[in-house]
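[Meeting: bench + compute handoff]

Bench side (C.D.) handed over the final construct sequence. Compute side (W.E.) agreed to return the predicted structure before the next meeting so the bench team could plan truncations. Sequence as handed over:
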Amino acid sequence: MAERDQHRIKIKRKFIDITNDIIIRDGVEAVSIRKIAALAKYNSATIYLYFDNLNHLLFLSSLSGTKEYIDALTEVGQKSQNPIEKLIDIWECFIHYSFAKPKIFSTIFFSENNDKAAKYMEEYYELYPEEISDEDNIVYKLIFDHDLRKRVGTLLGDCADEGYFKESDLEDLIELLLFAYKGMLEKVINEEVVADKMVEAKTLEYIKRILSLYISNSEMIKF
């Protein structure tokens, strides 16, 4: 890699790390171009040489707050399970980590006008390649897709291939699952509920109940 490229990566990572520090310390509402530039000891205009805008930087910084989730997701993918068991474990993992950092996960998966999200996600892992430790993992294909609908569809498709669900039911199933999850995530963000183990368990139970309604053969799996 050219020295110039290495320097560019180093500077971008510095801005991302500083932004993440602000988010952790003061919350995402406290982030501003001026504050990031001051802490990095650069002119504010310099940031725009590396990022499209503040939302671009915020998205990349949000991803840096998901490393624990990616590590846990990778462990789930390494388990030897049937597709439906893996689906449940992935949902449990996602609920746990997203409820712990609801605003960060909401930024990644539910931001408005986020048409550049796929590009930004690829950019992040080019800047932080060390955060992907197992490219052969079954869940690796989920990491680069910011579209939660497609993620869920991919996992349900694997289950349908094994006869757990009918292909014709998948769109309705995706809709219901996301409705239940997003509704509870919004309650966590709005502090209507406390994101404790009980709330996580309740949300997972909703997911299981929805799945059980569409299982092709109830004898195939017991939740």
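W.E. noted at the follow-up: DSSP finds twelve helices and no strands in the chain. C.D. will use this when planning the next construct.
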